[in-house]
Design brief:
The complex is a heterodimer of chains A (about 260) and B (about 750).
Chain A (H helix, E strand, L loop, with lengths): L1 H14 L14 E7 L6 E4 L3 E9 L4 E10 L15 E6 L4 E9 L7 E11 L8 E8 L5 E6 L6 E3 L4 E3 L1 E5 L4 E10 L14 E6 L7 E3 L7 E3 L7 E11 L4 E10 L1
Chain B lengths: L1 E6 L10 E5 L3 E4 L5 E3 L7 E7 L6 E6 L5 E6 L12 E2 L4 E2 L6 E5 L1 H5 L6 H5 L5 E6 L3 E6 L7 E5 L2 E2 L21 E5 L3 H4 L6 E5 L9 E10 L4 E12 L2 E12 L8 E4 L2 E4 L10 E13 L3 E15 L10 H4 L12 E17 L2 E17 L16 E20 L2 E17 L8 E15 L4 E16 L2 E5 L2 E9 L2 E18 L3 E12 L3 H5 L1 E4 L4 E4 L7 E13 L3 E24 L7 E21 L5 E14 L13 E11 L6 E12 L15 E13 L4 E9 L24 E9 L1
Parallel strand pairs in B: 1-7, 13-16, 35-38
Antiparallel strand pairs in B: 1-4, 2-3, 2-5, 5-6, 8-9, 10-15, 11-12, 13-14, 15-16, 17-18, 17-44, 18-19, 19-22, 20-21, 22-23, 23-24, 24-25, 25-26, 26-27, 27-28, 28-29, 29-32, 30-31, 32-33, 33-36, 34-35, 36-37, 37-38, 38-39, 39-40, 40-41, 41-42, 42-43, 43-44
Classes of the chains: A mainly beta (about 260), B mainly beta (about 750).
Chain lengths: ~260, ~750
Amino acid sequence: MNRTILLSLFFITLFSSCKKEEERDTQRPVISNALVDGEDHDIELTAGLDFRLTALVNDDRNLGQFKVDIHDDFDGHDHGRIMAKWADVIIEDISGTEANIDRMIPVPQDALAGPYHMILRALDAEGNESEFVQMTLIVKNGSEPMISVNDPDLSAEFPINRNDTLSLVGTVVEDVDLTEVLVSLRPGAVHDHGRLSAEVLFEKDFDLPGSSDTSWDMQLDGDLNIPIPADAEVGDYTLLIVAKDSQGNLGIFEAIIEVI
Amino acid sequence: MEGRVVDDSNGEPIPGAVVQVHPPERSVITNEIGFFSFTNLPPGKLHFHFLAPGYEAWEGSFDTKNANYLIIRLKPTFIELKEIVVEDATFSEGTRKSSLTTVAIDDEQLKDPSQNTFAEALAKTPGVDFINTGVGIAKPVIRGMTGVRIQVNNQGIKQEGQQWGLDHGLEVDPFSVERVEVVKGAAALQFGAEATGGVIRILPDPVPIETFSGRVSGIYRSNNQHIGTGLKISSRKGRFFSIGRFSRSSWNDYRVPSDEFLYNGVYLPIVDRTLKNTAGSEISAGLVTGWIGDRSTIRLNTSWWNQRSGLFSGATGIPRYFDIIDLGSTSDIDLPRQDNSHWRASLDGQHGLWDGWLKWDLGIQYNERREESDPKSHGLQYIGPEDSLALRLDLLTVSFSPHYRISRGRWDITSGFDLQFQNNTKSGWEYLLPDFKRYSESIYSVTRYSVNEKLSITGGVRFEWVQVNSQEHYQPYYNDPDSAVLRSPVIDKNWSNLALSLGVSKQFAQTWVARYNLSRTFRIPQVVELAGNGVHHGTFRHEVGNPDLEPERGWQLDLSVEGEGKNWFTRIGGYGYWFSNYIYLSPSGRFSPLPDAGQLYVYRQDEVFYMGVEALVEYHPLKQIHLSTQISYVNTINLNSGYSLPFTPPLNGLVSASFDFPLDRNDRWKGSFNISTEWASDQDRVDRNEMPTPGYILYHAGIQIGRDWKGWGIQLNLQAKNIWDTPYLKHLSRYRLLNLSEQGRNLAVGLTVHF
């Protein structure tokens, strides 16, 4: 008899929990409206100047901290070390159920030109983490390679038929020495990380071993005539041209190509 | 000593029954009239096992001075589980008198070709789960506890690696394991204070009987083109024996039943439904040589194991579209990956000494863990692009554990001590934990008093002392190799504590056994819990130790009831554990000051309550039909905050049925067909910052065919796992964070030939 009572007590405690559901907080905070100088994409910054970061953070109970993490997205290779890559970590305490982030962040004078990632994260007071927000910042410092495509006009989304060839006429110009040009045509629009297909249409890396390459011609040096296969998937693709100089500065050119 | 083994129901002799006696380890097989004999057995109380297929295993102790002719009546059974002997590790006797639940893992479960890892095969036992990183890396969980709280006792010595880590996999070759027992609950007394969750006990291979025998096994799994082969050869010449084994496996990237996964609000593609860079390979070899005397047995056991296992390209750092879009080769093991090795040499002996037995294990283990990744993916510019060694940990463990066992009338006593020395060195450009030395010594004694045949009381005490010397470590801050940030302080500390346990085992009628066990347990903090400080690049967690942690203390109550009849078997267990200061890793609500790192996770101590039940029912309406159902439930509560503990397994169960069919009239060929359903409910009892996980139901089926000739046999096993290719998330999976489904449909074939 005693044993039965003991056992029942044991199983009753087993299925009851000690703290009420509503006291627990497993809801994550949310970051929204993250803007750099009012923009959420195509962000260009200049070395030596400040930019303004604004964002809204919400939580159901009580916020904790906000973190800004800036690091380069240069893809590894690192030649000259004359200038430094820019990296920054900013942590800010926040509280309440809503916080307006609004701060000026300096881009260092000696930042290498090129693409950087800025990752924004938020925590609530209990330690629940928001999904992060990632923004691409393109830094220019005046000495990066200049990329211009003269034909076709890629200032707006450029449509092209399957089976056609995308012929690029243009130049890359640099004041000291160009070391590398990378060209790729990949599925998806850069700013639309929706559901993406898997086909890379073109990818080529041109090494310029000379010590005073100051210009590179897309037709003469690169033969950039990119055939669009007949069976290519229809949709948006990103044309990305990256040029690197001997100091490590990256010049970036991006355009959207729509395969129809 | 001689005797006969007969069928209890009709008195017919049982030929081919195995009769084992220990210590020393000796065995013989009965002849056509069920007769067996041993010569030169040492005098005194010896423990005998009698095993025959289709009969309940029988074990018991006899004093060779009083008994020299035995007639053993074995009861026919339909229940395979009853055909194997399960032994209490403390007294090396059957578990009838044991106050803790010990479960034998049957051979069918271990050899199921559809189980990717040894840990996964164990998880078909109620109360046992596993934490996995993909298909190659997995570690056991017992009653929601894992890591250092579970001891893996591999053939007498405590296996040591980086078991405190979540993406650590057990360094055990699945082909090498033949007999396993799982002790559920606080098994701290004999196994060591840390074993508060339980013990996975891999038993040494039996001493071979014949002069030469062997086994060749092959496995193929369709999902990831996994090919594995294992070879085992045993030989015995007089008093000497040796067992050699070799195995090798390799697998390609595995497939999941999904075209995409949702990470941070973005759907990313899974090209060809294949997880890039999840291929791996494993190789292992071992040699046991031994000598059997009349009153002594000595074994030298050496082994080597290596595993290279790729990690999904999206699982370290932020999964990037451009990293995973190009599937590349599905068979190469690219970065990021783990490359881990484990070497072992141990010498074990058993000697009859006075009226008892002295058993000792002297072991040396060397564990090398290499975590390799591309330095540029961590933004480290000062590291050469070829230097992919992110973290290497070299752990040397030397252990010596003798104990002496003696029986006097109703009393059985086992006393012993354990010495262990560990030396850890780290290298690589990442940092997680410091170089350290850890020295522990403990002394214990366990006593059992058998009030009568049906009631036994077991109690014991263990005293443990631990010394830790860990060095301070400075690590460069991000990209500045000249900077230095203190990541771990010097720790030079020692702790000591006392564990106690009292248990009762009571048999009711012939059918039921009830066990109660109450333990006061403690656990000395691990070095990683005291001084760890590093970013986990899969989760962005910056995990930080706390040098001020106190030894964890708790009271653990385990209850279980076991019942059996000719065609049914049931085991129900319940437990309640209370820890005054349970150590675990928890979010701090503060960010890491390091670049590219998320939240600080700190080791903290809280008052915690664990409780749960597990139940297994087996029923055989006919000899040919096996029905089984089981359920496991565990609930954890942090009494200070009200949250659950992280990685608490969901309510889960398994329902299975199998049907034996004859293939020829003489019953020489045997076949069986099995189907099973594995389910888990939603898990929404989570810690802060832990995602709830939806439940799932999976269906499996298979067929087995086998035949035994005199001296050799063949087994073919075909298993289909996750038949309907159901996408599901597993709460205890490292890839849960990425919302990545676990492995899809898998057809597995296993072929074993023994000779």
